[in-house]
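Bump. Still looking for CAF17 C-terminal domain-containing protein structure tokens.
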Amino acid sequence: FRLHENPEEEPRILLECDSGVLDAIQKHLKLYKIRRKVNITPCLDLSLWAVVPGERAGDIAGSLAKCADQALISTPDPRTEVMGWRLITKKGANLSEIIPGSQIGNIQDYHRHRYKQGIPEGVKDLPPGVALPLESNLAYMNGISFTKGCYIGQELTARTHHMGVIRKRLLPVQFLAPLPRDSIPEGAEILTESGKSAGKFRSGGGDLGIALLRLANINEPLCLNIAGDKVKLTASIPKWWPKPASK
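Sorry for the wait, here they are.
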């Protein structure tokens, strides 16, 4: 998020990241600042909120616009409209004052919503050094620019994009029944009915999750082996994806 309003101001950028890799991200950014006079500081006095759309999403947007001065950042989620708004406030801010009539859910509610939509977030869904941008659908979520200058992995990403051949993607998956918490190992293999590998499970909770799957297999019966038992699951194409992607 850009905090400075015009080019004459000192540039200030607020970066949202997975708290579990805060130290690693700071080291990575410091490595590339070279001799620039750039200060990189964690903002531990801020809180991040997701305002998930409901039946009165328009009213929420109006409330956020009216009370923007009470929040440091209030903006539509840049990834996709179905994820609602991102709200950043000082710690201890009263959300009922910023969004009158709102209900505060828990973090599990938020994760269930994004699992349903197939939205990856954090290092479990996007393991560093493993996840590829296009397979992770970042081109659908304003996460890749094909017009800016060079960046690490640019050639492979641009070539794959322009060739249009992406065989695997992150997709929402659903189990027939809720699974015990943390019962699925990270990266567990997903199999077709014939025992062929269809992809890998990334993360989830209850009966929902996200998996990296071969698009050719998503309409087949799929299953996971958990402690010797076969657990069935289904995959789906999110409705918010651009139309050509579902062909």
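The chain has a mean pLDDT of 87.

Edit: fixed formatting.
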